Amino acid sequence: MGRWEPNARGRLEQAALELYVERGYEQTPVADIAQRAGLTERTFFRHFADKREVLFGGSGRLEELCVGAVAAAPATATPLEAVTAALDTAAGVFEERGDLVRQRQGVIDANTELRERELIKLASLSAALADALRERGVGELTALLTAESAVGVLKVAFGRWMDEGQGRPLRPLLAECFDVLRTLSARGAVGAG
Amino acid sequence: MGRWEPNARGRLEQAALELYVERGYEQTPVADIAQRAGLTERTFFRHFADKREVLFGGSGRLEELCVGAVAAAPATATPLEAVTAALDTAAGVFEERGDLVRQRQGVIDANTELRERELIKLASLSAALADALRERGVGELTALLTAESAVGVLKVAFGRWMDEGQGRPLRPLLAECFDVLRTLSARGAVGAG
DNA sequence: CTACGTGAGGACAGCCACTGTCATGAGCAC
DNA sequence: GTGCTCATGACAGTGGCTGTCCTCACGTAG
């Protein structure tokens, strides 16, 4: 056995989520998180750039997953079809750990700083998707706008998923949003439905 | 004349932008901004919620302008046409004070915290646009996705406008992005152009 | 077995963003 | 002039975050 308990990072993540849920994000000093994890404040900041980042450890992996899905899409797929595949993959990750995701999202939605951090993670995802599309030979503007649209769809569908509680699973919600998105361009679409 | 110099808020905004440009955002303590404006640090925080917000005083007005444009769009306009009108209005504001906008954007792009704040302002704009569309009788999902798409277009077109230096004005860039967006839904669009 | 390097973590001092609280004093109403 | 208002000043305090040096189990070489 090592000098220290293993998985310091994971312990910090768990302690932080617990405390953010119990007391709220703002009412939780970093020192308390570290203490619950059996570490010091200084060590917290060796593992995470700041107090927010401890909630976003998985965003890098999610991004890689989505990029991989775009790259793996058949060569005949349109850009929109490629990012649809990416979001489908992402949906799988969310639905696997539904409870954790909901708990985490509740904390994020309750605090503006955390929402800011979430938004920049989504912007990073958009940039990564655009890169992946460019790799497929998609033109610059099309790549950027497809990626932005995909993240827009993800935001709306995910929001619905959270709101609906134990309603429909995420994947059909994504599909519905992509359908509506395609409808927007239709000539004369007044969108009253 | 009052006891104090007038327009404390405006002086703080100007001093902040100057110092952020001269030294960078992180290297500028709030006390220095206040000093240049002839005020104290405490007074800075009476006018702005935090050190970032001093750069975003105009975002509320921009949001109102866009919402007004959506509301003023003819009843026959599609949701996409309504938000196009809104972004056209916004483009006018940006182009009026091109130099200020560019300087400000340079500061924002150089700092992650400021980019986060910008993103949440854009998310707020998106929510306001969705509200304005709902007021027109547009369905929930269509309103949300149209608003997200509009902000996506704004991000891409504005980024291009910044990158192109003294190239095309903003309005045609917006139009081009909306064109590409409509193309995405086309059957078989591979987007290689 | 000893010696040494490595690396995660602790101890501590300090900067600065931000807040709570009370004091100040010109302008204004009467 | 008396008293109220209210933008600002003064000052102390909390907490996020950093720089720096110290500690000490572990692995490895010899």
Walk me through what this model shows.
Two copies of one chain form a homodimer. With about 190 residues, chain A is mainly α. Chain A folds into two domains: about 10-55, Orthogonal Bundle (Arc Repressor Mutant, subunit A), CATH 1.10.10.60; about 55-185, Tetracycline Repressor, domain 2 (Orthogonal Bundle), CATH 1.10.357. Helices cover about 70% and strands about 0% of the residues of chain A. The first copy, chain A, is built from nine helices and no strands. Chain A has helices spanning about 10-25, 30-35, 40-45, 60-70, 80-95, 100-110, 110-135, 140-165, 170-185. In chain A, helix 5 (about 80-95) runs parallel beside helix 8 (about 140-165). The mean pLDDT of chain A is about 95. Chains A and B meet through helix 7, helix 8 and helix 9 of A and helix 7, helix 8 and helix 9 of B. The structure holds a DNA duplex (30 and 30 nucleotides). Chains A, B: This is TetR/AcrR family transcriptional regulator. Chains A, B: Pfam families: TetR_C_14, TetR_N. Chains A, B: It comes from Streptomyces hyderabadensis.
